[in-house]
Structures are given as structure tokens and as C-alpha cells.
């Protein structure tokens, strides 16, 4: 967390105001940290004396570790397996005995070459290695942020990295990836890292899909990861097989897990975390606001600025700006938003607790230029909101 206060501001009551910038990334153009810096600069340009505190946020998907680092967590690096088994260096965040692990760091789509997918073979093994590294570092509370995955393996790779054995009819390990689960015959979880039993695992996600079926991991998100209709059918059946086998191994307590909120998150890694790691599901933005210390920062604010790249219907269903606005409204603090693109009408914004939104496309309608010049445009938008709400 950084304090962007500027000394010496007078007039118009600016010095009496305190702004909290709690925005997510503008995907493809600005990180959450860069968004916060640009908004602070624009506000200070318009109202030099206002106090600005920045708290970059994330909803559990890509950018979650970066948000934790900006809030004072330490950066830890680990050599792990990527989604295709290739070695890569991934980061997680640690403060005291709390770790923030972002699955996309190890198992995300960003690790695949442009236009190259591995829908049947991509694995979450590296995410399991990151979790093990966090345990090695002394973590006893782990926030597992899921999203942006290249995988649809139900968390099977993650469980394997943590000591589970997933075997075919011949007693051999099944191949990595969702496709390999079609051959799954038995599961032995006795080798799972014993430290997990004494560790609080929080599954942080912005989606509540079930594991299988028309709203499940394969059907809804598989095509985004290169899965053909035939691949989707294979993956959905394979995830069903994983649930059947793990249900036999774990007993009745696992029976309801495939339909539980978050089970289908990030290619079904939510399911693996719920049944294998004993994780508790919470909306990602709620978890991250707690971890980042949002409540304390909100106490110091008279206005909150939130936002993300596109404010649209998805924003209203668990995305960061909606979570920030709900928390601020509960404390009686006004909220305005910045975004690249605005697809919500004023009534929808007000329903979400957002007084007004400032879109970059209102300043630069050309989408390519808007993305390329997002930083300077965001400063202009922030100056405009400051003129409207802080003078």
C-alpha cells in the first residue's frame, strides 16, 4: 500500500478529502499497480492538496500476487512445472504465516505460446508445487487464487504434486492433464502432505460454476483454452470420472463437492482444492479485500475510486469493482469508477453502489489507440472525476 499524499494543497476543501484508489487491472494495457499510479497522478493534477492512498486489488485471478505485493507481502520465487510440464519460475506472496498463491503463475494461459493450446494435457502440477513451497516457507493460511488457467484437469496435477496417487487399472499413474483422467481407476490420497491438515486453505474465485455439466468447467471454459466440442465432451466425462473415484476414496463428505460453488473454477481446480485440500470457497474479491487490509484503508477515505478494464454485466457478478463498491457502500463511503470500456447504464451502476463511471473510450473512441495510450488517458479521466467530486 502506498500513500500518494501531496503536501501544500489548499482551497476548495481538497486538503480535507482522502481518496482510496482500489481498482483492478485494465487487462491487456495496465496492471492494477499502474492503474492506481495513473489515477493518483490525475487526481493530484486536478486537486493538488487531496490525500490519495492506493490499494491495487484483484479478484483471485491473474494479478492477485501483484496486488498482495503492493500491499506489503514479500515476493517469493519458485522453480515449478508449467502447464505443459516445462520448467518456469513462478512467484507467490508471503507475509508472516499467510501466503497468496496464484495458480495462473504456474498453470496459466500466459505460459502457452500465442495460439497454442493444450486442452487435454495441460496440468496444474506446478500449482501444487507452489503450494508446497508456501508450506515449506511456513505458511499456515494459504489464499489460492484461481483464474486464467490453461488447464481442465480438476486439480489432479496439483494433488499429485502434493503427494496424491491417481492410478489406472494397472496401478500406474494416469497421464497428466484432463484427458488422462479418462483412464483413472483409483486414487490414493494417503501420501498428501500432512501439513495440509493444519493449514487453512481459502479458495478465492470469482466464479461459482459446478464441476461438470452444461455450466461446468469443460463446457463453459474449455473452448477458451482451445477445446473443440469433442474435447469438451472428453474433458467433462473425465472430470466426472475424477469425481467418482475421489468420492469412493474420500467417502460421503465428498459426494456433494462437484456441485459446490467454485468446484468448476479454473478448469475444476476448485474441486480438487475443496475435496483434496479441505479448502473453503469464498468470492475472490472478498478474500483479497480482507488480505489486503481494505477495511482499515476505507476508514481513512472519504471517496473510493475503483475500476477495471471493462465495466459490464460480468462486473456485477463477483468482480473486483462490485466487491469494492459493496464494502464501501456498507460504510457509507461514495464510490466512482474508471474503466477502459463502459457497458453498464447509470441505473446498473447505481445498483452496484457506483455513483458514476469514467471510461477511456469516451476520451478516445478508437479502441487500438485507447489501449496503446491507456495510461495518459486514465490520468485525464482521473482529473475529470477529481474535478467533479473533490472540488
From TrEMBL:
Gene Ontology MF: a single term: kinase activity
Entries under InterPro entries matching the protein: Glyc_kinase_flavodox-like_fold (IPR018193), Glycerate_kinase (IPR004381), Glycerate_kinase_RE-like (IPR018197), Glycerate_kinase_sf (IPR036129)
Record-linked SUPFAM superfamilies: Glycerate kinase I
PANTHER family linked to this entry: GLYCERATE KINASE
Record's protein name: Glycerate kinase
Domain of life per record: Bacteria
Organism: Streptomyces tremellae
Family classification: Belongs to the glycerate kinase type-1 family.
Pfam families to which the protein is assigned, alphabetical: Gly_kinase
Keywords (A to Z) from UniProt: Kinase, Transferase
